[in-house]
Amino acid sequence: MSRRARRPSATRGVKLALALALAPALIASSSHAAEHAAGHAAKHQASHKDRHPSRHTGARGEQSIQAMSPSFLYLAAEDALLRDQPALAARFLKVVVAKDPSAALPRIELAELMMRGGQTAQARELLQGLETASLSDDLRDRADMLRVQIFLGKRNRDAAIQTLTDMLKRRPEADDARLMLVHLLEEEHRYREAHRLARQAARSGRPERWMRVEAELYAREGKFSKARRVLKKLRRLRPDDARPVLMLAQILAQRGDAAAAERALRDFLA
After folding, report:
1. d(Cα 171, Cα 154) in Å, to the nearest integer?
2. Series of mean pLDDT values for 10-residue runs along the chain (270 residues)
3. Which pTM does this prediction carry?
């Protein structure tokens, strides 16, 4: 399996279908078989030397999973995710990563599942095993965003800000990372840097979203006149967009000018 998780060819479709059908069942069979074995043991306890058949049943299920190829297990994990079974998906992905430590996509997906489950230490360990220089832009972005979450969970805001800054140097078009960085800088009262990031994005061909972000920044700073100027400029740029008008009315209302807020709304609706 390659670093980007090779997918099996179409000629193996029958085997893949079989793997998808059987792999989840192998896990489930452990519990079902355990129940059956427990009932059987209760009826024939005297004639059984092994009083814990469920352990062997679970072991056989685990052995079956271990015998599967990483490609089959990865597809089974994806199927489990589609069925909203993250714990089962994580179990399959752990085996994939153990079998193929260089497989980047399963490792990142497993780290994401660990973060969702609050298992930060395990997620961090998985990311430490990644060779980021060889990753595609998409996978590297996902890994970086996971690192940011880990840093924020440890209250290491400086490391989170630095990671996002480095990410934007590599990928200026990564809007989600840019927006997170803007909010982090704002919370640190580093308004000048936050405004610079918003203006850079607005000049790069995405003006509407980032002009709204800049207006929000001004409003939260208490610079209502500047926020109003940005929103009026945005309204001229997009006269049919109601969002700048609603933001402007909200800012006017916050300043105590309810009449002006009402006029702005009436003018837009006229």
Report:
1. 25
2. 44 42 44 37 40 49 77 92 94 93 93 94 91 86 95 94 96 94 96 95 86 91 87 86 86 82 77
3. 0.69
Burial of 194: CB neighbours in 10 Å, binned 0-12, 13-18, 19+: buried
- Tell me how far apart the alpha carbons of residues 236 and 255 are, in angstroms, rounded to a whole number: 23
Cα separation, 69 vs 96, whole angstroms: 8
